Amino acid sequence: MIHGPRMARKQAVSSQVLLLLWALLLAVTPAREVLAQPAAPTQYDVQAVYLFDFAKFVRWPAGSGHETISICVAGQQVFADTLTRIVAGERVDSHTLSVRLVQQPQDEAACDILFIGSAAEGRLDSMLAATNGKSVLTVSDVPGFLDRGGMIQFLIVGNRVRFSVDLRPVARSGISLSSELLKVAVAVKGSAAGEGGVQ
Amino acid sequence: MSRQNASLSARLTRMNLLVSGVVLLIAAVAFFSFDLLSFRNTLIRNLDAEAQIVGDNSVSALIFNDQQSAANTLKSLQRSPAILGAALTTSEGTVFARYGRPNLDQPELHLLDVGETERVWSSGTHVLVAHRIVFQGKAVGVVYIAAQLTEIGRRAREYVVIAFLILLFCMAAALVISNISRRLIAQPIISLADTALLVSRDRDYSLRAKIDADASEIAVLVEAFNTMLAQIEQRDAALNEARTDLEVRVKERTAELQVANRELEAFSYTVAHDLRGPLDAISGIAFLLAQRAGNAGDRNIGPMVDQIRISTANMGSLIDDLLNFARATTVAVKSMPVDLSAIALEISAELTRSDPGRLVDFVIDKTPEVLADAGLVRIVLDNLLRNSWKYTSHHPRACIEFGVKQTFDAKQTAGGPVFFVRDDGAGFDPTHADRLFQPFQRLHGKSDFPGTGIGLATVQRILSRHGGSIWAEGAVEKGATFYFDLGAEANPGRSAENRTGWQEL
Fold this sequence. Notes:
Chain A has helices at residues 3-28, 43-54, 77-87, 124-131, 167-173, 179-183; strands at 58-59, 68-74, 91-92, 95-102, 113-116, 137-140, 152-157, 160-166, 176-177, 187-189. Chain A is α/β, with parallel strands linked by helices. Chain A has one domain: 3-Layer(aba) Sandwich (Rossmann fold), CATH 3.40.50. In chain A, the strands form 2 sheets. In chain A, strands 3-4-2-5-6-7-8-10 form an 8-stranded mixed β-sheet, sandwiched between helices. In chain B, the strands form 3 sheets. Chain B has a 5-stranded antiparallel β-sheet. A 5-stranded mixed β-sheet of chain B has the order 7-9-10-12-11, with helices on one face. Chain B has a two-stranded antiparallel ribbon with strand order 6-8. In chain B, 24% of the residues are buried. Chain B has helices at residues 3-57, 59-63, 67-75, 150-202, 217-296, 301-330, 340-354, 374-391, 455-465, 496-504; strands at 83-90, 95-100, 118-122, 126-135, 138-148, 336-338, 359-364, 370-372, 397-404, 418-423, 469-474, 480-485. In chain B, a hairpin with a 4-residue loop joins strand 1 and strand 2.
């Protein structure tokens, strides 16, 4: 293309001008304050926040609509408390949120999001079986959760909390997950692109 | 065509070019400025839209703390060559992800104020757009995009080229138009100027400037000019008529005057001539009477007859003077080479002989010949020298000079040499010098110096008939000097051309 040399010349010129611009920007930028960071959040704190954030990227099937998105926690009381603090006063698409500790079997059927902590690993399979086909988003940090039929599994990657998704149980449940959510997942199983497709 | 006319049309052309050039330049600058401004605004709006898209695509990455995903999203800005770099910050302001061209430092970002959703910082060539990312009613971060506005510069350069071309084209058009307008406007003015030039140079007021068919101001001007010319012509004619009329009248009057003068002179000549006869008779009879009285031995009669003879002699000289005076005005001037000094010598000898008892030195220089009437010039010299002889008579010793005045002075303008007759006699009071040359006017009493008072008047009449003049200098008892010249025609040594040249000097 005849544009080739012209573009090259342009860039050569612009990189000089650019240094100037950055210098200018530096000059007018007020010293950025380093915000005081609170005490480093634990893995569970981050998982609790993510659990709340998932609600923003999930659409439950029509008809199951209710005023409140109920997030159920099976296992740790502490986790449920943390989550309760996080969702207090929050709304997702005009829905309020509530947090409930699942203690009795069959309770999980009424949940919108079900988190199964490692403390409740013993009841995991029965709970998955109970929610199978129902519009309940199942989340856990138990290793191998996806292989046992779960939807979202928390992972620790490079000292950060990440998650993987298995779309097959999601599809069965009638829930739809935002592509935005899938974009940031470490791995997405059962997508059209094939097993184990990552992003 | 004259130079002024050429400069007029050149000025018209220049003016046309200047006006169209300036108008065009202003229009081009205004239009292109507006266009560049709106282009710039469009660029910035596009950038802002881009920031919004990037922000929306980065929501999940920000929420789930996925820097890799955010970086990938920012990378999509690669397709836009104007974008130099971009950054994502969390709502707390820490940089979450960056994107930038190779070899570029990352920008230190400006911060949005709390509650501000977007802002644009721009310099002449660069722009920084900040856009807050809001998700579910919550601010999750800010997108910054830095871009260069080189596109604007490129467009501006294109505009300069276009404007230059348009200007060039319009200048050519203006040249053509100014040529046409030159024919329409300048040509009538030029022809008017040409006519004005001809009129003022040749003084030909019968010329007229051409009038164009259209009734423009120039036509009005030309018409006014023509009207003015007509008026001048009319006035000229009237003036000429008046002048010829005046000339005719002057000629008539002059002729009448000449006739009257001639008659008067003839009359006085006749009277003087006719008086001479009886006077001669009286003189002769008185002589006879004296003889008879001598024979008879009557001694008383002798002195009385002498009185009669003296009186008749006086009267005779008066008549002679009057005849001279009359002749001076009537006789035709016949010019011939005359040696004034020779005549002066003759007269001086005559005077010396008439009264040998007086001690008078005559100093007579040799003077150049002049063209004059010999008879009349003799009367002049006779009068002047006799005057000097007379007015030195009370002095025991006297000197009378005749010669040519050597120094040039203003009175010589008549052209010929200036002669003088000088004496050291009684002189005159210079305050009455103007009366010297009037007939019958005398500055001295008749008892002191006898005379008729007509001599100098005759002299002046003769000299003026030669085209010359006479004037006198003197003081009481300090002598008198009479200067005279015989006019430009008197000098035989000069050719006509030389004479005129000298006159002009």
